[in-house]
């Protein structure tokens, strides 16, 4: 099944889910196209997107913990805050959430709103299906989707994403953080209800 057909199938499955609030987990590695796919699914279901990236810990927390080079790894997120927001979504409430500004590498508090009347919420992030303490307890999800992209394609996209860095810094970021994270997503995630090929 080609990519467009897979997306159409995902939309049909989301539309068929019962309930006044439907929360869908869209997981995948860095640079797999999660944000683009999430926006597409939200647009086609009349829903909204909640990016997990808004829950990045700030550099002022990461640096003293020695985690700044690993920003984006599971331990560099506010999982407690994220879980509370997901619980609020499940309750059907209006949800105010942080949004990550990649150009400044900071999360902006209160920058996103999901109205109470929004039925479908697509939550997107690397670690939504991670089979690890804390992460496996987030949810429950009404549908889980994992986005798969070959590692060679991820590398090409990451090279483009970090093109403004020096070759040494770019290589350290990609091979020291992004691709190890991608491998953990592939190898350490719980099974998804459906898998969609690379966007």
Molecular structure report:
By secondary structure, the protein is α/β, with parallel strands linked by helices. It has one domain (3-197): Rossmann fold, CATH 3.40.50.300. It contains six helices and seven strands, in the order αβαβααββββααβ. The chain has helices spanning 3-16, 34-45, 59-62, 79-90, 151-161, 167-188; strands spanning 22-27, 48-51, 95-101, 106-114, 120-125, 143-148, 194-197. The strands form two sheets. It has a five-stranded parallel sheet with strand order 2-5-1-6-7. It has a two-stranded antiparallel ribbon with strand order 3-4. It is globular and about 50 Å long.
Q: Which fold name corresponds to the CATH topology? A: Rossmann fold
Give me the CATH superfamily.
Answer: P-loop containing nucleotide triphosphate hydrolases
**How would a crystallographer describe the biggest sheet?**
5 strands, parallel
Please report the first level of CATH classification, the CATH class. Alpha Beta
Shape summary = globular
Give the class from helix and strand content and strand pairing. Answer: alpha/beta
Q: How much of the sequence is in beta strands? A: 15-25%
Keywords:
199 residues, 21% strand, alpha/beta, Rossmann fold, 5-stranded parallel beta sheet, single chain, two-stranded antiparallel ribbon
Give the SSE layout.
Elements: H1 3-16, E1 22-27, H2 34-45, E2 48-51, H3 59-62, H4 79-90, E3 95-101, E4 106-114, E5 120-125, E6 143-148, H5 151-161, H6 167-188, E7 194-197
Parallel strand pairs: 1-5, 1-6, 2-5, 6-7
Antiparallel strand pairs: 3-4
Helix pairs in contact: 1-2, 5-6
């Amino acid at each position: 099944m080609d990519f467009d057909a897979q997306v159409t199938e995902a939309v049909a499955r989301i539309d068929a889910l019962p309930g006044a609030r439907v929360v869908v987990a869209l997981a995948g590695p860095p640079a797999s196209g999660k944000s683009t796919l999430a926006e597409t699914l939200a647009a086609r279901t009349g829903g909204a997107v909640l990016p997990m990236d808004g829950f990045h810990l700030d550099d002022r927390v990461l640096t003293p913990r020695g985690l700044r080079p690993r920003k984006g790894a599971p331990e560099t997120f506010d999982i407690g805050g994220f879980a509370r927001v997901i619980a609020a979504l499940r309750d059907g409430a209006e949800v105010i959430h942080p949004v990550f500004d990649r150009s400044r590498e900071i999360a902006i508090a209160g920058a996103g709103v999901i109205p109470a009347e929004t039925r479908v919420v697509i939550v997107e992030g690397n670690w939504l299906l991670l089979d690890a303490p804390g992460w496996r307890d987030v949810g429950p999800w009404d549908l889980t989707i994992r986005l798969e992209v070959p590692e060679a394609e991820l590398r090409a996209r990451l090279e483009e994403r970090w093109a403004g860095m020096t070759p040494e810094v770019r290589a350290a970021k990609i091979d020291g953080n992004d691709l190890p994270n991608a491998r953990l997503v592939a190898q350490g995630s719980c099974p998804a209800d459906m898998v969609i090929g690379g966007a």
